[in-house]
Amino acid sequence: MAAALAERVAQHERRVRAGQDRDERGDRREAEQGFREGHRSRIRGARRRTTSVLPPPLVARRLPLGAWSVTPVTGGVNTGAYMLFGAFTIKVPPPGWAPAGFDPASVRSHELITTANVTAANAIKTSQFWLLWTALFCNVSAGIGILEQAAPMIQDFFRQPDGKSLVAASVAGGFVGLLSIGNMAGRFAWSATSDVIGRKRVYMGYLGVGTVLYLLLAFAGHTATALFVLFAFVIISFYGGGFSTAPAYLRDLFGTLEVGAIHGRLLTAWSAAGVVGPLIVNAVLDAQGTPGKLTAGAYQPALLIMVALLVVGFIANLLIRPVDPKFHEPSEPVAAGAEKES
């Protein structure tokens, strides 16, 4: 009798322990499932934030982030090859060198074109550097904001009441390619224009005319596809032009001594704008819904923020004056009979 009772007690204890084990396993499964869901959610969030600063063609093709793929590797190899080619072939000319037949009197003179030199260490102490930094930051932020959302944007601007867009996905992809052409063309056309009218004036065009175009895009871009494409094309050409004109603007302000190093420091404006521009646009659009399923009105707040940025950049460029001579390096007289190209 006692043995039977002991056996029943032992069986009960085994059942209790088995139940506890099941509960613990269930708790562990729930915890693991919750962790996995949370981890997946964090990955999705990180992926989304990362793709917000990637060029649209990479996002559209859904290249694996954080993994090797053909396109980034090919781009890296090509970029490395070109940079090495430039490093081994481009040399600094000796002091006093000039091309054969060069006439110094033919050089365009202006109060903003200095004949002195400023070092990189001194350049970042000047207001001119930071005003130009601000102008470039605002110009790039506005341009990259459109470029990053170009494909869904053109479809949303021409979305009909039934939810369908007049612009097909394939046409939207072609629009992105057209903007890339505008970016490239602007680098040639506007930098060449700056040689004629001056760097400050051409930046006034990037920022001032860009402000007007953004307003037109926000309030009239949905009226005709041709107008939308025209406005966006010119805006992106200003984005490219701002890049190509910046080194010449720096040379005019700070001379040639360390213009490369100064340009490297100025490009931190591009780095910052490459993050800030897409984040602003994405934050506004996320509050409205999902890009690619919106309407033209949903883009107006983001476009008006870009307008405000361009106004700030316009004012910054307007305030640029010649660099104070106290930042100039001591001038060294060029010896008679300086070497010239024969």
What does this structure look like?
- There is one protein chain.
- The chain is an all-alpha fold and 342 residues long.
- It folds into two domains: 1-28; 112-327, MFS general substrate transporter like domains (Growth Hormone, Chain: A), CATH 1.20.1250.
- Helices cover 70% and strands 0% of the residues.
- It has twelve helices and no strands.
- The longest helix is centred in the N-terminal third of the chain and has 50 residues, at 2-51.
- It is globular, with a radius of gyration of 30 Å.
- The model is unreliable at 30-60 and 333-342 (pLDDT under 50).
The name of the CATH architecture of the largest domain is Up-down Bundle
- What's the helical proportion of residues? 55-70%
**Number of DSSP helical runs:** 12
Task: Kindly estimate the percentage of residues that lie in beta strands according to DSSP.
Answer: under 5%
CATH superfamily of the largest domain: MFS general substrate transporter like domains
Overall pLDDT score: 82
SSE diagram, text form:
Blueprint: H1 2-51, H2 56-60, H3 70-89, H4 120-123, H5 127-148, H6 150-157, H7 169-197, H8 199-220, H9 225-254, H10 259-266, H11 268-288, H12 300-318
